C-alpha cells in the first residue's frame, strides 16, 4: 500500500534533483543581470549597455539617460519601477516553493509550481513590453530633437534600428538561469508523467533527454536571417548582395545577424569588430539559398572562383563537390581555421 502511494503521489529522486537545481538557478539570478539592452552606433563603437537586474538597473544608465533626453524619452531611475521592489521577493518565493515541493514530495505541488511559474513568466514579459512601449512612445513634446511619427520603443527580444542606433534586447545570465529553472521544472513534470496510475514505471528514459536536447537545439540557430537577394546590403563593403553563391552571414553572441556579399567581407568585419564568439554561416555554392555553418562545409580558394569582392572563396556542403570544382577552377582546398587566421 505504501509503495502504491509513493509512486502515484510522491516525487522521484530525479525530479527532486531538478527542483533543487531550479532553486539554485533562481537564487543565483538575483545577483546577475536578468536582461540586457545593448545600443550600437558609429559614435559609440564599443556600444552602450543597459543591464536589468532583479533589484535595479546597471550598465551605462547615465549616458543613455543623457542621450534619450535629447529625443524626449524619460530618464531611467530605479525608484520609478515598483518591479524592482517586488521582483526579488517573487523570485525568492519561487525558490522557496521549489524547496517546499522537494520536502513534501507531492506531484500536485510540482504541477502547481510549474503552472504558477509559467504564468509569472508571461506576466513579466507583458509588463516588460508595456514598459518599453511607454518608454518609447510617451515623449516630451518640447524635446530638442523631434522626428515626426518616430517612436523609440526597444525590441522585446532581438534587434531593432532606432535612428542611428541599433538596439539589441536579449536575456542576460540571470535571464537564462531563470529560463533554465523553468525548463528543469518542466522536465521534472514530464519525468513524473512517466508513471502509470497503477504505479508501473514506463521505461522511456530517453524522453527526458529528448526534451532537454530539443530545448537546447531550439536556440542553436537563433538570430539567423535569410539573405534577401538584391535587397540586403553587405555590412562591410555596403554593396547590394546580388549573388547568393558567395553570400555569408555572421550572428553575434547577442543574436544580431550581419550579412555579407563575400566571405572576405565577413572575415574582415569579424576581425575588425572582434566578434570572436559569433556563429558564421555561408551559402552552399550549389544551393545558394541554403545557409550552412562554416564548420560543416568544405572551402576552395582560387583566382578563377571570382567572388564579388575578390575573396575568391566558395563553400560546398560535401567534399566531392568541393573537389570537383577545385579541379575545374584550378583552385585549392582551404580550411575554415586557415581562413580565420
Question: Topology, please?
Answer:
Elements (H helix, E strand, L loop, with lengths): L1 H8 L3 H17 L5 E7 L2 E9 L4 E3 L1 H10 L12 H22 L2 H31 L20 E5 L2 E7 L1 H20 L13 H12 L30 E4 L5 E4 L2 H11 L5 E6 L2 E7 L4 E4 L11 E4 L2 H10 L3 E3 L1 H4 L2
What does this structure look like?
This protein has two domains: 216 residues, no CATH class; 92 residues, no CATH class. It has ten helices and twelve strands. The longest helix is centred in the middle third of the chain and has 31 residues. The termini are far apart. Helix content is 43%, strand content 18%. Strand 8 and strand 9 form a beta hairpin. The strands form three sheets. It has a five-stranded antiparallel β-sheet. It is flat, with a radius of gyration of 25 Å. 29% of the residues are buried. With 341 residues, the protein is of the alpha+beta class.
Helix content: 40-55%
Q: Into how many domains do the coordinates divide?
A: 2
Mean pLDDT: 85
Largest sheet: 5 strands, antiparallel
Series of secondary-structure elements, N-terminal to C-terminal: HHEEEHHHEEHHEEHEEEEHEH
Calculate Rg over CA atoms.
25 Å
Structural class based on helices, strands and sheet pairing: alpha+beta
Low-confidence regions: 1-7, 195-199, 216-221
Percent range for β-strand residues: 15-25%
- With strands numbered from the N-terminus, the spatial order across the biggest sheet is 3-2-1-5-4
Number of helices: 10
- Termini separation: 68 Å
Q: Would you report the number of β strands?
A: 12
Q: Assign an overall shape.
A: flat
Amino acid at each position: 500500500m505504501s509503495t502504491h502511494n509513493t509512486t502515484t503521489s510522491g516525487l522521484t529522486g530525479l525530479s527532486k534533483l531538478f527542483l533543487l537545481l531550479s532553486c539554485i538557478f533562481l537564487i543565483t539570478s538575483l545577483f546577475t543581470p536578468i536582461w540586457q539592452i545593448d545600443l550600437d552606433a558609429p559614435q559609440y563603437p564599443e556600444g552602450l549597455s543597459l543591464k536589468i537586474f532583479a533589484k535595479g538597473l546597471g550598465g551605462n544608465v547615465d549616458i543613455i539617460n543623457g542621450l534619450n533626453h535629447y529625443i524626449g524619452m524619460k530618464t531611467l531611475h530605479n525608484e520609478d519601477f515598483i518591479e524592482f521592489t517586488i521582483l526579488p521577493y517573487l523570485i525568492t518565493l519561487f525558490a522557496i516553493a521549489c524547496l517546499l515541493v522537494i520536502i513534501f514530495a507531492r506531484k500536485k505541488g510540482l504541477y502547481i509550481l510549474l503552472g504558477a511559474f509559467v504564468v509569472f513568466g508571461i506576466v513579466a514579459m507583458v509588463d516588460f513590453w508595456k514598459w518599453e512601449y511607454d518608454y518609447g512612445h510617451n515623449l516630451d513634446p518640447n524635446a530638442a530633437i523631434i522626428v515626426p511619427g518616430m517612436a523609440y520603443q526597444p525590441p522585446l527580444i532581438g534587434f531593432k534600428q532606432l535612428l542611428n542606433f541599433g538596439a539589441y534586447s536579449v536575456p542576460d545570465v540571470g535571464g537564462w538561469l531563470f529560463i533554465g529553472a523553468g525548463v528543469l521544472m518542466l522536465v521534472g513534470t514530464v519525468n513524473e508523467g512517466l508513471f502509470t496510475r497503477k504505479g508501473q514505471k514506463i521505461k522511456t528514459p530517453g524522453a527526458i533527454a529528448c526534451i532537454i536536447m530539443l530545448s537546447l537545439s531550439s536556440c542553436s540557430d537563433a538570430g539567423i536571417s535569410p539573405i534577401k537577394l538584391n535587397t540586403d546590403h553587405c555590412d562591410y563593403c555596403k554593396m547590394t548582395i546580388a549573388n547568393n553563391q558567395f553570400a555569408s552571414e555572421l550572428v553575434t553572441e547577442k543574436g544580431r545577424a550581419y550579412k555579407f556579399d563575400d566571405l572576405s567581407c565577413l572575415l574582415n568585419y569579424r576581425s575588425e569588430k572582434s566578434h570572436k564568439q559569433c556563429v558564421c554561416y555561408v551559402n552552399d555554392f550549389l544551393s545558394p539559398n541554403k545557409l550552412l555553418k562554416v564548420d560543416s562545409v568544405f572551402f576552395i580558394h582560387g583566382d578563377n572562383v571570382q567572388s564579388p569582392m575578390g575573396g575568391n572563396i566558395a563553400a560546398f556542403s560535401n567534399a566531392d563537390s568541393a573537389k570537383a570544382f577545385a579541379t575545374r577552377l584550378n583552385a585549392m582546398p582551404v580550411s575554415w581555421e586557415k581562413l580565420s587566421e
